[in-house]
Design brief:
single chain, 247 residues, mainly alpha, 58% helix, globular
Length: 247
C-alpha cells in the first residue's frame, strides 16, 4: 500500500479531516453521479498499478490478488491464482478496495490514504483534489502576506512626509526613538495573519468549494503545473504550519 510519510503534509491533511471532511466527502461519493464512479474506478487503477509493481515478486503478487482482488473464487482479472500462503485465505476474503482497503467501492477511509495513492502514481480523484488543495492553501497564504505588506506600505504613504523617517544611523536615534520598518510584519499583524489563515484552513466549506470548481473544470488529476510543484510540497507545508502554529 501507499503511505503518506511526510509529517508536515500529514499534519495539514489531518486539519481537513478534523473538520469532518471525510464523512462529508464519503457521503457525497455515494450520491454524486460524477465523482462517485470516478472514485470507484480508481480502485481498479490502484489494483493494476500494484500488480505491475509486484511483478518482480510473483508470490507477493499472488498474495495481494488473492487477499484484495478476488471474491470467493470469482476473479476480477481472470482466473484466480493458487496462492501458497495460507494466511491469504484464498477465495474466502471479500474484496478490499483501493489503497486503504475499504470494503465498499465508494467508501472513503481517510484523505491521507487517497492522497498517498495519488502521489504514489495511481490516480484517485479525491486524492488528487486534496493535494491540489494544499497548493491552493499555499497560494491563499501568499496572498494574505502580500495584502498585509501592501496595507503596511499604504499606511506609511498616508503619513506626513516629515514623519516618514524609517532608516537612520544607530547613533542618531535611541532605540526608543527608532521607527519600525514597514516591510517587517509586527507581532500584531503576524498574529492576525495566523488567525486568518488558520480559520481559512479549518473552514471545510473552502475545500468543498474547491472540489466543486475542480469537477466543473474537469481538474481531477495532476496537470503539468501541479506535477512541477510536487517536489516542493513539504517545504510549502512547513511554511503553512509556521503561519498557523507560529513555529
Amino acid at each position: 500500500r501507499s503511505w503518506l510519510v511526510c509529517p508536515l503534509v500529514n499534519n495539514l491533511i489531518a486539519r481537513l479531516e478534523r473538520s469532518g471532511g471525510v464523512k462529508k466527502i464519503d457521503a457525497r461519493l455515494k450520491e454524486d453521479p460524477f465523482l462517485g464512479p470516478l472514485h470507484e474506478a480508481s480502485h481498479n487503477i490502484y489494483a493494476s498499478y500494484v500488480t505491475t509493481v509486484l511483478l518482480k515478486d510473483p508470490e507477493e503478487q499472488k498474495r495481494f490478488l488473492n487477499m484484495f482482488v478476488f471474491v470467493g473464487g470469482n476473479a476480477m482479472h481472470g482466473t484466480e491464482l493458487n496462492g501458497t500462503d495460507s494466511s491469504a485465505k484464498v477465495g474466502n476474503w471479500n474484496r478490499k478496495y483501493g489503497n486503504a482497503g475499504v470494503s465498499a467501492p465508494r467508501d472513503l477511509k481517510c484523505f491521507h490514504a487517497v492522497a498517498a495513492q495519488a502521489l504514489g502514481g495511481a490516480a484517485n480523484p479525491v486524492g488528487c483534489i486534496v493535494v491540489m488543495y494544499l497548493f491552493k492553501l499555499y497560494d491563499v497564504l501568499q496572498t494574505m502576506e502580500t495584502d498585509e505588506r501592501i496595507s503596511e506600505v499604504e499606511k506609511v504613504e498616508t503619513r506626513p512626509a516629515e514623519d516618514q523617517l524609517y532608516v537612520t544611523s544607530a547613533s542618531a536615534l535611541s532605540p526608543s526613538e527608532r521607527k519600525p520598518d514597514p516591510g517587517a510584519p509586527s507581532r500584531r499583524t503576524f498574529a492576525a495573519k495566523k488567525a486568518d489563515f488558520a480559520a481559512y484552513v479549518d473552514d471545510f466549506g473552502n475545500f468543498e468549494q474547491f472540489l466543486d470548481e475542480c469537477i466543473a473544470e474537469n481538474r481531477l488529476s495532476f496537470d503539468e503545473s501541479t506535477t512541477s510543484k510536487l517536489p516542493k510540497l513539504s517545504i510549502m507545508a512547513k511554511e503553512m504550519l509556521v503561519a498557523i502554529e507560529g513555529h
